[in-house]
Amino acid sequence: MSDSRFASTPAPPYYAVMFTSIRTADDDGYQRMAGRMTELAAQQPGYLGVESTRGSEGLGITVSYWRDLESISAWKACAEHRIAQETGRRRWYEHYEVRIAKVERAYSSPGTARP
Amino acid sequence: MSDSRFASTPAPPYYAVMFTSIRTADDDGYQRMAGRMTELAAQQPGYLGVESTRGSEGLGITVSYWRDLESISAWKACAEHRIAQETGRRRWYEHYEVRIAKVERAYSSPGTARP
C-alpha cells in the first residue's frame, strides 16, 4: 500500500521525535506555520518522514522520523523552525511534551507492504 | 498541570511503543476492546502511561510507555491482548505500523509542570 498518512521509514535503527500537544484557542498563523514546518522539515538532511494526527478531544501527536541525533539537533536549531518553536510556546500550545527516542524494532500489519 | 491526556513518564531512559493505524469500517466490538486493552495495559508490570488520539482523516497514533523491553514483550504475549491483536489484524485495522523505541531525552513546554 502507499498511504501518505504513514511514514515510509527504513529498517531500524533510526530516531523518532514524539511531539504531544494540546493547543490554545489562538489560531492566528497556526495553520500556515504548521504547513510550512511540514514542508521545511522534509527538506532537512536526515529527514525520514512524519505521522501526525489530532483528535476531537484536542490531543495532537506528531512523530517525525530522522536518520540520527545530529539531524534532529540541526532541525531544532534551524532558524525558521526556532521562530515557530518560540511562537508556539508563547501562543499556540497550552502544553506539550517532546520525547526523542531511538527506534529499535518496527513491523507492519501482515498482508500489507510497508506504505 | 495534571491532564490525563498526557502520560506522566519518569526521567529517561524508558521505552515507547508507537502504534500508528488506519481503521476499517468494522466497529463491531472495537470500542469495547480498546477500552479493555487500555485498562488491562495499565495493570501490567512496567507500564508507565499512554497517549492516544485519532484525527478526522482517520490516522490514529497511540504511544504507550514502558520501563523496559521485557515489560513490552510480556504485554505483547498477554493472552487477552493476543486475542485483541489477532482480531485487530483480521477485522479492525486496515493497516498499522508498530515501532518500539528507547526514549533517550524528554522535555515539557516551559512554564508548565510535567502533567
What would your notes on this structure say?
Two copies of one chain form a homodimer. Chain A has a four-stranded antiparallel beta sheet. In chain A, a hairpin with a 4-residue loop joins β2 and β3. The first copy, chain A, is 30% helix and 37% strand. Chain A is an alpha+beta fold and 115 residues long. Chain A is built from three helices and four strands. The longest helix of chain A has 14 residues. At the A-B interface, β1, β2, β3 and β4 of A face β1, β2, β3 and β4 of B. β4 of chain A pairs antiparallel with β4 of chain B, so a sheet runs across the interface.
Q: Identify the quaternary structure here.
A: homodimer
Largest protein-protein interface: A-B, 45 and 44 residues
- How big is the Rg of chain A? 15 Å
Helical element count of chain A?
Answer: 3
Tertiary shape of chain A: globular
In brief:
The structure is a homodimer of 115-residue chains. By secondary structure, chain A is an alpha+beta fold. Chain A contains 3 helices and 4 strands; from the N terminus they run E-H-E-E-H-H-E.
Sequence-ordered SSE layout with sheet pairings:
2 copies of one chain form a homodimer.
Chain A: E1 14-23, H1 30-41, E2 47-54, E3 59-66, H2 69-77, H3 79-92, E4 93-108
Antiparallel strand pairs in A: 1-3, 1-4, 2-3
List key phrases describing it.
homodimer; 115 residues; alpha+beta; four-stranded antiparallel beta sheet; 3 helices; 4 strands
